[in-house]
Amino acid sequence: MIWNPNKECMPLEQMRTLQGKRLHKIVSYVYHNVPFYRNKLQEMDITPDDITSIDDIVKLPYTTKQDLRDNYPFGLQAAPQSEIIRIHASSGTTGNPTIVGYSRKDIGVWSECMARCLTAYGITRDDTMSIAYGYGLFTGGLGAHYGVETLGAAAVPVSTGNTEKHIRLLKDLGVTGIACTPSYALHLAETMEKLGIDKSTLKLRSGAFGAEPWTENMRHEIEERLGLKAYNLYGLSEIMGPCVSYECSEQSGSHVNEDHFFPEIIDPDTLEPLPLGQTGELVFTTLTKEGMPLLRYRTRDLCCLYREECACGRTSVKMGRILGRTDDMLIIRGINVFPSQVESVILSMPECAPRYLLVVDRVNNLDTLTVQVEVRQEYFAQGFDTFEPIFKLERDLAAKLRSVLSINAKVEVKQPGTLERSMGKSKFVIDKRQLK
Ligand code: ADP
Ligand code: ZN
């Protein structure tokens, strides 16, 4: 089944014409409504009339996460506040979070694109789908939720957290679909096994998994242990949220909703666009967004784009799995964490030396973060060589990390000089999660 064959199976030339028209319109819209873009375009001597086809996209400036931070909170918003009906915020930025405002039309486009994804995963009106992405500022929960309702399936908004209760609901309600992070899916499987609940007592058959990188091995494991087909779902809040691209029955690459989100791959160093098939940084232009449209937004995600005749019948461009990032962003239990953020929390504690190591691991399929940090010599000399002040510092730092970054970390305070010194570039992060 295809939710919107008219768009998802549109012949390439027709799609490019549509994209060109929409690009002209969106450039004109931001030119007249967002001083940031007007200034940029004027500096480059470009007017909306210079953009007549989708090929003209290469003339446009890039937008970066830093631009969003610099214009916090509403500087890049194009629609007047009266048109905004929802605001999400992305976690994990140094300093300012990223604020994204949505108009009623944006929420409609998001819901439709999400319904396209779910339909590709085989979900229909007859399904009951539990949504175990976080509900809140994070786009995962509400994004998937609106898609399920738009499609006409029944949404069970379990959110994250109470895994045992969730399993009970899966069983009692005969839930057939699930949306969550792939690592949470494995945690769910593990908890079921611990509770002695066999997958055959559940009716799960399809899962929408995303918000973090995962691998084919994880897919096989999830499919095997939960007894369902596991599909990839990709998105980012700056562009919309989950729904930007989705796997189909072929489970090889994800179709991009390219009538709304135009993708490009660029070389992250030279910023030159790369041809289809080459790996580089993924860039998106929102073609229809009203709240906060973005031109050539650099996602920092590394992957490739390609076109192929897909057996599912969709003609849209496909993207491969995310192979990494151009920055050092970590995703820990679905929360974006930059090492620099952890560093600034550490350095806000006068007792801590600027010597730390973040150890990321996956235990029982849940990500863990251990922050090892050295106490400053002068504090060590003044009583920090005993347990009590060390324990207190560990508790205080953990509490601060929780309140500032919303992450639960185990803190280990070390004696001065005990963390390994390297000759070359210092290593601040060890990621032990095996994603290969
Ligand atoms: P969201 O709230 O939709 O997760 P964020 O802005 O918090 O959006 O995070 C988006 C980032 O999460 C992406 O840029 C990408 O790095 C990662 N991500 C999301 N979905 C996937 C996926 N299916 N595979 C790999 N990485 C993903
Ligand atoms: Zn397909």
Descriptive labels:
Rossmann fold, 9-stranded mixed sheet, 4-stranded antiparallel sheet, 21 strands, binds adenosine-5'-diphosphate, binds zinc ion
Q: Can you give a write-up of this model?
A:
The protein has 436 residues and is α/β, with parallel strands linked by helices. It folds into two domains: 327 residues, ANL, N-terminal domain (Rossmann fold); 106 residues, 2-Layer Sandwich (GMP Synthetase, Chain A, domain 3). Helix content is 32%, strand content 25%. The strands form five sheets. A nine-stranded mixed beta sheet has the order 4-3-5-6-7-8-9-14-13, with helices on both faces. Strands 10-11-12-15 form a four-stranded antiparallel beta sheet. The chain is globular and about 70 Å long. The two termini are 32 Å apart. Bound molecules: adenosine-5'-diphosphate and zinc ion (ZN). The site of adenosine-5'-diphosphate has 22 residues, from helix 6, strand 7, strand 8 and strand 12.
Low-confidence stretches: none
Q: Would you tell me which CATH topology of the largest domain applies?
A: Rossmann fold
Content of β-strand: 25-35%
How many separate helices? 12
Rounded average pLDDT: 93
Bound molecules: adenosine-5'-diphosphate, zinc ion
Second CATH tier, the architecture of the largest domain: 3-Layer(aba) Sandwich
* Radius of gyration of CA atoms, rounded to a whole number: 23 Å
The global form is globular
Q: In total, how many domains does the architecture comprise?
A: 2
**Which CATH top level class of the largest domain fits?**
Alpha Beta
CATH H level, superfamily name of the largest domain: ANL, N-terminal domain
Counting DSSP E segments of at least 2 residues, the number of strands comes to 21
The main β sheet shows up as:
9 strands, mixed
Q: Could you estimate the helical fraction of the residues in percent?
A: 25-40%
The order of strands across the largest sheet is: 4-3-5-6-7-8-9-14-13
Distance between the termini: 32 Å
Structural class: alpha/beta
